[in-house]
Amino acid sequence: MGQAVKRIDLALEETFATVRPHLKWRDGPAKMNERRNSFTNTADGEVSVGRTRYVRTSLSKAKLAELAERVEKHWRAVGYKIGDVHSSEPAFSGTASDGCIIKFAVGGSGNVYFYAGVGAISPGYGGEVEGEEGDRFPKAPNGGPDYTPDVRDPYWSK
Questions:
Q1: How far apart are CA 108 and CA 105, in angstroms?
Q2: Cα(90)–Cα(84) distance, integer angstroms
């Protein structure tokens, strides 16, 4: 599990390090999803380990398109195979040669998020990875975490 979490965090860190000016963000918890045989519904001994990183910086529409272009260009430059492209949202994914997948997407309230995931050998369950709870989020009106961008930036928010 530890190696899988390190790999997905590295994919997120490398992506965010290329963005200038830097964006503010919060990490969600690292989670495991148990893989199951689609025919027998039995665990197959592997899990997918993933984490979502939520951008706190408020992005204007023009800057959102610029960010998407920069991220896609970076992913191509480091060898990710680009797929699942939806230009209207924008949303797309990249797959590294080692199987690590990273996704860029925009949520319903205009929040931008990245998801990174990779397969790992399973300890036999799904759920949050112990010790990898992520950052604290403010509470939304419904009591859950609030993913709404809350930081204005002189460059990205214009």
A1: 10
A2: 10
